[in-house]
Amino acid sequence: MRRLLFIAVLIAGLTPQLASQELRLPNKDGSVKFGVLGDTGTGGSDQVAVAKELATWRTRFKFDFVVMMGDNLYGGEKARDFQKKFEIPYKALLDGGVKFYAALGNHDDAAIQRNYKPFNMNGERYYSFKPQNGVRFFALDSNYVDEKQLGWLDKELAASGSEWKIMFFHHPLYSSGETHGSADLQRGLLEPVFMKYGVNLVLAGHEHFYERIKPQKGIAYFTLGSSAKLRRGDLQKSALTAYGNDTDYTFILMEIVGDELYFQTINQKGTTIDAGSVRRVGKVEPTTTRTAQPVVPQAKPSPAQPGPRQEKK
Ligand SMILES: [Fe+2]
Fold first, then answer.
1. Which of the residues 76, 78, 97, 141 has an alpha carbon 20 to 30 A from that of 32?
2. Mean pLDDT, residues 280-308 taken together
3. How far from the centroid of its chain's Cα atoms is residue 17's Cα?
4. pTM (2 decimals)?
């Protein structure tokens, strides 16, 4: 019987009121460092403010790439729109060699965006990439979860072995948003595959707020659709919510060191609103009735969680 990676996660060391502009990530040499943006494509001043702050943080935390969870361009998608809603806001990052990897949202034209070189989609609606040995990202098209995409995903995950498996796409499978809420249809199709292969982390957008979901069936979920738009008052904190914010424009910095993924969520003013880590632990033998673990191990503080770093301003 095949062994599957036990991908139960542990969220540890969280303090809602993080006073600071301190870097709360280990910032280790050789780690996988990346940024997370969602629902960016307005070309407005709030997108620009978040972009500027993200570029400022890169002077201290040298992430190599950014994942985008869709709604990359609202409205027109002509060359001048790509300039206004992407190239100009993120110019400092693009000039600094940061790569962007996009997933498609409901406002995005797949035919145009998948062929737009700076989105690194290689002409596909869904794709995977491996920034480093041991870590693999999967960009899905949650607008159309058809048989073909599911077949591709199954094959890719089967081949990914013990790597970290990180999904990013537009529609959140779990959400406490009043406007949209959980994407039940997509969840019904995707969650069984995620569990079968031990997906560790799922990043989504669509909701114009930030919500860190309590681990569901051993998988960590973040929703971040507030990198340019906000829907204030829309987050109806629920039993799903570990932490949420619908008043700030935000991005996330993430870093993978071994079996620990650290995150720091920051607003447009550079203030940290959430931080902590997701840990993958252990392994489990599948049984005839269970293909992956439905159980999260006993919660305990992660010994690897560092204290705040004392950065000079
Ligand atoms: Fe959307």
1. 141
2. 42
3. 22
4. 0.86
CA of 39 to the centre of ligand 1 (A): 7
The rounded Å distance from CA 287 to ligand 1 centre is: 38
Can you list the alpha helix ranges (DSSP code H) found in the chain? 45-58, 79-82, 91-95, 110-113, 147-159, 184-197
Q: How far is the CA of 224 from the centre of ligand 1 (A)?
A: 11
| Amino acid sitting at position 32 | V
Interval 68-121: pLDDT, tens: 999 999 999 999 999 999 999 999 999 999 999 999 999 999 999 999 999 999
Cα 31 to middle of ligand 1, angstroms: 31
Q: Which of 31, 22, 13 is nearest to 134 (CA)?
A: 31
The CATH number of the domain covering residues in 4-17+32-284: 3.60.21.10
How far, in Å, from the CA of 228 to the mean position of ligand 1?
A: 12
CA of 60 to the centre of ligand 1 (A): 31
The pLDDT of residue 162: 86
Give the tens place of pLDDT for each residue, 143-168. Answer: 999 999 999 999 999 999 889 999 99
pLDDT of residue 12: 47
173: left (phi over 0), alpha (psi -120 to 50) or beta: alpha
> Does 14 or 154 have the greater pLDDT score?
154
Cα(72) to centroid(ligand 1), Å: 9
- pLDDT higher than threshold 90 for residue 295: no
Question: How many whole angstroms from 109 Cα to the centroid of ligand 1?
Answer: 12
Would you state the pLDDT for residue 280? 86
